[in-house]
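FAQ: What does the model actually see?

It sees only this:
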Amino acid sequence: MVNSVTLSSDMSKLYVIDNGRAIEFDLEVKTGVVLGTLDGQITAATALAATPGTGEGGAVNPDAAARSVKSFKVDVSKGQWTTFFIKEKLTLGVIGATDIDFGFTGSAVTAQAATKCNFEFFSLQTNTLNIKKTGNTVEFTLRLTAPATGGVDI
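And it is asked to produce this:
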């Protein structure tokens, strides 16, 4: 069974749901949480370095700024947000849900205009995603995975 990822109702915690277990990660740590994929499954770990420009404190990796490709900020005081993982595309979706009956069909652009909701998709196929909460804002920052710079003889 494919694992999944979800956020707590106050959006301060991220949970990886794997084989009936909920593994909790704190989004309010200075460095945030990094998501990626391993063998088609979504994985998470506390980030080693802060994503540049995401707040005070934490060690900043200068190479991370050059590898950041997309950033999406959500204000958690104005609505509830949720995530979902699309295994076939190794993509994480983030959507703002303001109504229990929320749903859409058709093209993403048409649906976004009609519902006035915000959503974003992040490909984790060759990228990692840093998620961090500061105050009332959760920031999602997609980063290119650093290419291998050398090998190890085995």
